[in-house]
Every structure is written in C-alpha cells, then in structure tokens.
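Convert to structure. Protein one:
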Amino acid sequence: MKKPANLVKRLISSFLTILIITTFGISQSNIQNPSGFKIKKGVNLSHWLSQNFGWSPKATFITEKDIKFIDSIGYDHVRLPIDEQELWDDNGYHIEESFNYLTQCLDWCAKYDLRAIVDLHIIRSHHFNAANEGGANTLWTDTIAQNIFLKLWIELSNRLKKYPVNMVAYELMNEPVADNPDDWNKLIEKAVKTIRSLEPNRVIVIGSNKWQIPQTFPDLKVPENDKNIILSTHTYSPLHFTHYTASWVPAKMYTGPVHYPGQVVTDADYDKYVDTTDSVFVKAMEGSKEVYNKQKLAEELMPAIKKAKELDLQLYCGEFGCLPHVERADRLKYYSDIVSIFRENNIAYCNWEYKGDFGIYKFDFEKLISLSPDVELIHILTK
C-alpha cells in the first residue's frame, strides 16, 4: 500500500534525525573536564546583574528562595550574566553592593549544590546587540579596551577564586561580534593565558564569534591541550518565530502569523503582511519562509557538534528560548524539540531565562513583572 506523502516525509525526517544523532552525538556522552565541573540543564539569571531594566530591586529580584526553587525543580546549574557597568563604576572601582550580590548568589548555589557559570555579558567596549541599539564596539581595535577586559577577569578571579573549581566556571564573554573571527581568537588566547596564570584548573566557557551561533564554530580556535574548557553555542532559530514582535529585532514590524513546526511564515501571509516595496522590510524578513522542524534544528547545530567532537570538549548551549507571543502549542513544541536534540546529543543546556519575557514564569508585559511558574514549560525543560 502506498504511504501518504506526509507520512513518507515524517519517516524520512525521523531517519535523518537519527542519522545525525548517531553520527555526532555518541562522542559527547563521556566527556568530562578534569576539574569535575558537571552540568546538564540550567537556567539564566538574567536582568539582575546584567541588562537590568529596573523591573524589581536587586535585593528582591533574585533571593535564596529563587535558588532553592531552581534546585527543587530539577536544574543543576545557573548561568549568571554580569555587566561591567553593574559591577564597576565609570572610574573602574568595584560597586561593592553588586559584588556582594554576586558572591551571595554563589554562596546560595553552593548551599543547594547548584553549579554556576559567571558570564561576563556586556562590557563598555562591547555589546552583542550594538548594531541594533545604535552603539559601536571598540574592543577589537582598541588595545586599551582589551587590557581593561583582561583586567576585569583578573579582578573577578581575585574575588571568586575561593569557590571550588567543580562548582563555579567562568564564561569569557557573551556573544562576541568581531568582523574578523581571528580578532576574537587572539583575545581568547590572551584571556585564557591571563586566567590560567591565576587559576590553572578553573573551567572556562568559550563561545564562537558572531553571537556564538553554530555556523561560526569552524573558525573558533581555543588553546590546545586544555581540557578544562567547555564550548558554548547559542541558538534562537528560527528567529522570526522565537523573537516574534520583539522590539529589538529588525523584523519587529511583521505582525502576521508565525508557525512552528513548518514554514514559519507562509507564502500567503508573507504576501499579505510584507510590503515588498519596502526594501528594509524585505531584508528583515529574509529566511522567514523557511521550513523548521526538529530535523532542521538538529542540522543547524552540526558545526558546533563537529567542533566539540574534533577538540574532544564538552558542548554547551548557554542560551535558547522563545517569547510567549506565538501560539502556545507551537512554543511548547519548539521547546520540546530543541531540548530533546540537546539530550540526544549529550549537549548541556541553559534556557534563557529564569525571570523575564522569555522566562519560566508567566510574564505580565504591561506591569513588567513575573507571575506564577509556567509548570508545563518547566516540565519540558527539566524532566
């Protein structure tokens, strides 16, 4: 009997996904760093010591109660983004109150046996979204800025080296955006050398150039023979779905329906909602008519998986997520698919985010406050 066309497509898709997993996933299963920093599933503590929008006072936004809750629902680590302007004033002096929040949080994590990754998220000379926010990155051309970047890590190490290497790791910088990937590779070399002179066994998390997307991993270079390194990728594909109507993305003007799985923006909706005489609009919608499903998501991760396999290092997805502006069933399906890909390929992961518009709490977009935990989403992320 002839199988229906859609069934044939599903069988082919399943076969290709299994082939991808079989080819690249097995080698990740037993990789562990010598320092014993073991992570599997975590959540980002964003909008606290980084990108703080004043939604809530720092003293109450993240408390011991939050860390206890994160542990209770099954996460094993947190990623803790920090910004230069939140921890250092304009003259380079420590803002002690913020440093106290940082160390207090790490103490809470230790109490509940949660690992922590301290992520230098935004510095004054580099912002991952500078191109869309009217800023400019001077880090790649200014040697003074590079020396300040290294100095920040020296000072962080001096404050944090008391924490065991199996409990706290350092992420060099969030989503580097250099025109030339070798500019980032050279800074990686300097930064790792600097930290290694102070902490030979600290686990260092390193992502690739251009927002840590998987496609740029072939250009990434990390110090050889250093097994206390974790490679980190980020994925928000398909962006027209995960960032639907987000104010900071070029496609924010599109208000028609989006879908997952399937063609994100259908031909009919594209014709209806996209003004094809507006070249800026058309440019922003590039790729929006692509078909996305679990197979496509897995294929996009392959360059990062292959690089980790090549270097025999653990792979980590430090950010992924989807805004709740899309159909809920589609959103949960996206999370279910991407998390299953991570698990099938033994990729540790950390969703964006704990509290906030992407968060595991339902979010009131008018009052800008987190509400009750999204139990169904939490189950997908932590099961």
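Protein two, convert as well:
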Amino acid sequence: MNKRLQITPRKIAVDVLLRVEKGAYSHIALKETFSAFSLTPLDRAFITELVYGTIRRKNTLDFIISGFLKQSNLQDEIRCILRMGVYQLRFMDRVPSSAAVNESVNLVDYYHLPGQKGFVNAVLRNIERNKDRDFFAAIQDPIRRLALVTSHPSWIVEKMLSRFGQDDTEALLDFNNRPSPNIVRVNSLKTNIEKLKLDLEAQNIQVSVLPIPGTLLLKGQSRFLNTEQYKQGHFMLQSPSSILAALMLQPHAGLKILDACAAPGGKSFVMAQEMNNQGALLSSDVHEHKLNLLKKGFAHLGIDHAKAQFIDWTLEHKEWDGYFDRVLVDAPCSGLGVLSKRADARWNKQPKEISELVLLQKSILGHAAQAVKKGGLLMYATCTLTIEENQAQREWFLSTFPQFSPAALMDISGAFVDDADSLARGELEILPFKHNLEGFYMALFERGDRI
C-alpha cells in the first residue's frame, strides 16, 4: 500500500466526523473507533482533539469556510476535511500551517475524490493566508456575532445572555469550548485515595488531589485508561458536579436509597461506595438497554448490594410509597450545563424541548417523591442552567407537596463558601464561570408528614 494512504490519525478523525454527520454520538463513535485500532496515547489525544474541537467549533468553521466558497453543496467528506483543516489552522497552534493544509489535501485520496484535491488546497491556503483576520467584523447583530465567535446556537447564547449578562455568558461559552479535564473518583470498596495516588504516580501519571472527597485530577494523556487500577475498577471517570450531588444526599451504610433516573450510573456508583455495600440501593431507569450499563458497572466496581430495575417514574408506584430513606431524581433535562462534555450536544438541542422537559420533570419528581419515608431526604438535580428546569421546579414542588420542606445542603468540599445562603435554603447552582465546574443544580427536601 502507498505510504501516503496508510491509515493516519487524521483519517481516523475524519471517519469519526463522518459518522457524527450521519447521526452518531461523538463520544460513542470515538470510543468504538479507539477499540478498533491500536493507537498510542499521543495519537488518541490528537484524534480526540481533532474530533471534539471540530464538532464544537462547527458553525464558526462553516462560517469561515463559506467566505471562500462559490458553492455550498459540498460532499460530506470534503466538508469534514475542510472543517478539520480550518480547525487546525485556527485553533491548534502546535500544528504547523503547512501540515494542516497538506495533510488535509492528502485525505481526499482516501475517499476517491481526486478532482477535489485542488479545491481543498485552494480553500485552505486562502484561509491560511487570512487566518489572523477578524472574520466576524461585519456582523452587526451582537447575539449572532457571539454565537459565531464562540460556536454556539444563537438561541442558547440569547438565553444565557438574558440570564447571566455579557461577561458571565462569555465566560460560560468559553468554558464550554475547553476540553474536559480527566477527573476520577476513587472506588473506596477496593482501595483508598492515598494508595491510588501512589499507584498512578508510580506509572508516571501526574496526579492532583481535589477538594471534593475522593477525587483526583489526572494530567496529561489518557494513559491511565490502560492501567491495572482502571481495569480492576479502582477508580472511575466522573464529573465532579455529579459526585457532589450524590454526596450531598448524605448516603451512608444501612440506608435504603432510590436513584430514580440512574443510567449510566455514576451517582449510583458513588452512593453505593458511600454505603460500603451495606443497605439497599435501587437504581432504576426507563431505558431498558441502559440497565446493562448499570449492572456491568456494579460488577466492575465490586458493588453487591445494588439492583438495576426498569421503573417508569412518570407513573404511580404505590408499592414503593414511603419506602426509601433517600431518593435522588437526577431528571432528564436540556443539559445546558454540560456542553463541554459532549461536543455535539449543543447542535442537537432545540428551545421548544425545554417546556416539554419541564412537564416530564414534574411528573417524575412528583411520583418519585411518594417513595420517600417520613424524615427521609429527596434530592432533585439537573445538569442544566435554566430557571424553568431548576429554581422554578423547586418552587413548584414546595407549593404542590407541602409535606416536604427545604433541607440544608452541606458544603462537603469547602468550595462553596460564597454560596452559604443558598446552601442554607437547600439549593445549589453550580456555575462554570463562578465555580470552574460543569453546570449543575440541586435542591434538597425533607419529608415531614406521617405515613
């Protein structure tokens, strides 16, 4: 085979981008691709940045490219090659411009489109010559300009501006475009944080302890995924905001706990470890195929007191009335707080979905609340930043279910000193531009009526 046509990291990245164009989820397509190839950590990191960066910056890249085209009906392969080429030119300082252009031109050969090589070369070289230009100077509409500069849908930009103002919105959008750090949670059923830190450092992995109990920041490439500690379930990758939600529900040994919308299982895993395999944990979900993820996670992490079960909490379940000491409702939501984690998520959302989600959240929360025993705690949580899905839902719940009252949240990390008033009234909104964590909302309630 011609050396130039050997499978390269850029070719792998374009293939993933093409799958995403056809409807695949980027993180799933990338995971499946990595399992099919033997790649070095550096190649995996390079492909990951190419894929996620190109998808995140899609409308910025398309706008720049469109200014150098006479036609708009590009083939998918050419469009993906151009986007990825411009991403390297515009956002990857470590990639030489000549490599970004030449390697993009070479990619055309893989897709048997030889007549397009000159076209790709001309477009990218023109953009390279103008790469320091302000491509957005002529845009007068401030919302559209910010949407293009930061590569977000205009409706999200407008919604965040109306809530947070210019400076905080710009900081939020910038946060969404940063790669997610490698944050892991120690599995206390198999090891402890001190030993895990030493084990990873012995393999030349840079490790920092974070304020959130049991969490570590792993710096550099993703070599830790190949360690025996990872393979044996000594730790798991997890968002620190979701770890906090699980911990703030105060799980401990001997309790009966319900995780009502559990898949893929991260919060269930944290609560199970805090319970030290003592008590009962029911992790339910309405998607039956996701229950296998829960079961595999329990087995991998050594959790033997938990059960994964199909339950639809939009319906009444009297058999569970007043049964649980703790109930977590991490409700389906618009996910506007975690756009940094899923590169393609921002392009798959529509504003009309929010009102539909509000009704769904109310139904799940109202029914799951009946499963809380007297004196038990209920947490409502989302990974979004809209008032409709967060603060307004809390107010609705308190007015609709008078047997519940706010329960104070504990600052278990020491990271929320400035949020003392909010914690005292039983709610916390984690804001990327304020806390440097993924956006999250949680509200804690205590049931005080007789059952």
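The chain has 18 helices and twelve strands. The chain has a mean pLDDT of 94.
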